[in-house]
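Pilot study result, target chain (178 residues):
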Amino acid sequence: MKFESKKTLNLLLRYALLILIAFFGLNLFYAVFLPLTKYSVYYFLQIFFDPIMVRDTLQFGQKTIEIIGACVAGSAYSFLLLLNLGTPNIKLPLRMKMILFSFGIFLIVNIARIIILSLMYLNDSPSFDALHKILWYFGSTILVVLIWFLQIKIFEIEKIPFYSDIKSLYQKSNLKKK
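Predicted structure:
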């Protein structure tokens, strides 16, 4: 297969996957990352407390902590994957490594965030509500951007998601001024 044909096939496959993820990916992310998140938090908090887990809720005597979809941040995983698949010229082994790297970092930081907020809540910290709201509204977005920039540096990515594809298509099109 010619080089240009491979590039075109790669572009079509990446964007077909992006469309599938847009329709079905979010449920998959929650199905995978909700158990990973809630059980990690539960097992860690068992070190200090004696929680009882009932579905997605941790009970600590009179206090409860519910790990809901927003805690898992499935849309953040989706966005990390969209950035990855929207970037051209990444060979499959490197792309897989980048996806695992970004998901792993996000999962670890997210679990740490939930644990810290849980400890603050259980210890009646006056800062809990403010920090919880700040992290809820801005935390995941900032973390996704930081993880993406870290990947660019570590994996030496030179292309820009989506823009590089559009630019390449424009260069090959009849729209380009001659």
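One observation from the pilot: Residues 3-45 form the longest helix (43 residues). A full batch analysis is planned for the follow-on phase.
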